[in-house]
Amino acid sequence: MSGSRAAIRYAKAVLSLATDQKSTEVVNSDMKSITNAIAGNEDLNQMLQSPVVRSSDKKAVLLAIFKDANVATTNLIDVLIANKRLPLLNDVASSYVHLYDQLKGRQIASVTTAIPLTEELKTKVLTKVKELTGKDAEVKSIIDESIIGGFILRVGDIQYNASIANKLDKLKREFTLN
């Protein structure tokens, strides 16, 4: 828990610095690149988490991978190394993206379905999210065949579960109670 609080503090500091330098969008792009790189490469993730790998080696690898990164991003890497908090890099980057989206009035609507979403359905979801929250959203589609049918919509702290699996589970609980 303290790791996530620390990540949010670092993310807020980077966002503040990027706002002062009028580079929030560029830094947001860097942070998305960092989260995608770490999520897509288990070796990179393990290297960042490893206490055996020297900090100088970690820094060299990160600067080689993100050589086109903004100064604020490279400064973040330096600060995390200096404070021995480099394992938080992925959490800091995702926290920054979340804070940036909040700043811009955007949010992520996570839609879980059994089959891929069509463009028509995606438009309907965006309209419903705008109606419910008053904010624009970006749809993140997740496919999970275990829900059988229907959908699960998550926007921020709100979750609406209209999946067939959920309805069957409710029926099962209803019959076992009687």
UniProtKB/TrEMBL annotation:
Keywords, alphabetical: ATP synthesis, Cell membrane, CF(1), Hydrogen ion transport, Ion transport, Membrane, Transport
Coiled-coil regions listed in the entry: none
One protein family per Pfam: OSCP
Cell compartment(s), UniProt: Cell membrane; Membrane
Gene3D superfamilies referenced in this protein's UniProt entry, alphabetically: N-terminal domain of the delta subunit of the F1F0-ATP synthase
Segments crossing the lipid bilayer: none
Top-rank taxon, per record: Bacteria
Keyword Nucleus listed: no
Location (main, coarse): membrane
Keyword rRNA-binding on entry: no
Topology relative to the membrane: Peripheral membrane protein
Family as reported in the entry's similarity comment: Belongs to the ATPase delta chain family.
Functional description taken from the UniProt entry: This protein is part of the stalk that links CF(0) to CF(1). It either transmits conformational changes from CF(0) to CF(1) or is implicated in proton conduction. F(1)F(0) ATP synthase produces ATP from ADP in the presence of a proton or sodium gradient. F-type ATPases consist of two structural domains, F(1) containing the extramembraneous catalytic core and F(0) containing the membrane proton channel, linked together by a central stalk and a peripheral stalk. During catalysis, ATP synthesis in the catalytic domain of F(1) is coupled via a rotary mechanism of the central stalk subunits to proton translocation.
PANTHER family cross-referenced by the UniProt entry: ATP SYNTHASE DELTA CHAIN
Protein name: ATP synthase subunit delta
Species annotation: Winogradskyella damuponensis
Lineage: Bacteria, Pseudomonadati, Bacteroidota, Flavobacteriia, Flavobacteriales
